[in-house]
Structure of ABC transporter ATP-binding protein:
Amino acid sequence: MNAPVLRIRALRCEYPGEAGPVHALRHVDLDVARSSFLAIMGPSGSGKTTLLHCAAGLQNPTSGSIELDGQDLRGLDQTQLARLRRRRVGFVFQSFNLLPALSAVDNVELPLRLDSRTTEPARTTALLTRVGLGNRGSHRPHQLSGGQKQRVAVARALITDPDIVFADEPTGALDIRSAREVLRLMRELADHGQTIIMVTHDPVAASYSDAVLFLADGRIVDRLPRPTAQQVAGRMAVLVESAESAVNQ
Ligand SMILES: Nc1ncnc2c1ncn2[C@@H]1O[C@H](COP(=O)(O)OP(=O)(O)OP(=O)(O)O)[C@@H](O)[C@H]1O
């Protein structure tokens, strides 16, 4: 593999808990290739969100290293981490997180404005066209369907030309048809060179990725390249069952 765009080594993350520390990530090593679409799955509480947040510079791990395109996040102070989040990564959330008072165009341009950078109307229009909403630029979120809102959110994530787009349950709030549209879009983006890391509970969503990483109890326990939804569902059933029997012991 060429130099990975994301390189994680010996990552551990603990939270304080009443009965001692909660080990959310125990020892995670991970290389993510540029232009790849990676899905992260695992039972509830297995550490998916923690891994996504650490990798995106939203949260400091307890120990271990994270390199984004060769830059070690460990040495960065909060201001530098905020700049890295604004410029080098994009986010897509289950709940869209669009500002209701702003048009689609203004929502897409928001990351540039927050970073005091100039906007280029032609680029915004091109991005909205790329996500299939070229004629919806003046619409506000309440005038858009769930799938359209999420496609605006994808365009917003792309406006800074990020190294990686992190998507946390991007189809969790969508009906099946809208979810498929968003997933097809993400697949197309990855085919055109965009690196995407997506946390999902949905085996069908995971089947759009190049590979699925399975977490259990804070560790990577399996990896499935070129996944089918059936294969993913089968592996998840085994992991959920063993997580449940561990809790009941
Ligand atoms: N802020 C926190 N304080 C204490 N414990 C936390 C905190 N955030 C997460 N945890 C714990 O860390 C572990 C991993 O949580 P995380 O949210 O990363 O899992 P997840 O796989 O994303 O779960 P889900 O699928 O339910 O969203 C869980 O045991 C969780 O209870």
Observations:
- The longest strand covers residues 22-32.
- The chain has one domain: 35-51+77-248.
